[in-house]
Specification:
The protein is α+β, with helices and mostly antiparallel strands. Helix content is 12%, strand content 25%. The chain has one domain. It has 1 helix and 3 strands. The structure holds zinc ion (ZN). Zinc ion binds next to loops.
């Protein structure tokens, strides 16, 4: 099969599509939609992501961080 090939995502399009940050600047949980999240780690599996923790689901997830 093919070799693993990483394609850089178009972050502008992805950000406009998902908009993970809420009005208060908190990241929205992708599972329950709650803004009761907290920053868990500045570094996710990718350079462009950070790890967050949802207090509602008690689940950690990754979201794009905003630096420009
Ligand atoms: Zn949640």
């Amino acid at each position: 099969m093919g070799r693993p090939e990483r394609r850089p995502r178009d972050e502008r399009a992805a950000a406009a599509d998902t908009d993970p940050q809420g009005a208060d600047g908190r990241v929205r949980c992708p599972f329950c939609g709650s803004h009761e999240t907290e920053l868990y780690s500045l570094f996710g599996s990718q350079l462009s992501t950070s790890q967050y923790y949802c207090r509602r689901c008690r689940v950690a997830f990754e979201a794009l961080k905003w630096e420009s």
